[in-house]
Design goal:
Elements: H1 7-45, E1 50-56, E2 62-68, H2 76-79, E3 92-97, E4 103-108, E5 121-127, H3 134-152
Antiparallel strand pairs: 1-2, 2-3, 3-4, 4-5
């Protein structure tokens, strides 16, 4: 093989770098802003103790998440009937920009001491930034809530905390 044969591969590499730069730029200028706006609308519309966060990960990767931060105000009276009740904050739905500019969506359950951490994460998909629409966000929040409900009230076969 001659050195000249590398030209096609070099051109492909240049194209791949341009694609990554375009995706990261789209995240920065549109997708992240849209995620923040949509998730904040959800939080405002349905006040159940969650909040929206903008995160900066290692090596300039960024993320937006919605996380349970406090117990819903409307349920405070019922928890006062059980003094030992403890709200476990930390369940989160995360939209994270990966190294290649795609958006990695996953969720975390609240952490409980003495439970395996590998069961703490559920992957919900990888999307190009332009694929993040209100429909996708709403579907992922719905899936997150379903998983959190299942976590809070598990089936008899899969009890959390035992």
């Amino acid at each position: 093989m001659k050195i000249e044969h590398l030209e096609e591969r070099v051109n492909d590499y240049r194209t791949s770098i341009k694609i990554v730069v375009d995706k990261r730029l789209l995240w920065k200028t549109k997708t992240k802003v849209f995620l923040l706006k949509t998730l904040k609308t959800i939080v405002k519309l349905y006040d159940i103790g969650w909040k929206v966060q903008e995160l900066s990960w290692i090596h300039n990767n960024e993320a937006v998440n919605i996380t349970f931060d406090s117990f819903p105000e409307e349920l405070m009276d019922c928890t006062n009937q059980i003094p030992a009740f403890q709200f476990l904050p930390g369940g989160a739905l995360i939209f994270s920009q990966s190294y290649n500019g795609d958006i990695y969506i996953f969720m975390l359950f609240p952490e409980i001491e003495n439970t395996p951490q590998e069961s703490n994460v559920i992957e919900l998909g990888i999307y190009a930034p332009e694929m993040i629409t209100e429909k996708v966000i709403t579907e992922k929040v719905d899936e997150f809530l379903k998983q959190m409900i299942q976590w809070e009230v598990p089936s008899a076969k899969k009890k959390v905390g035992y």
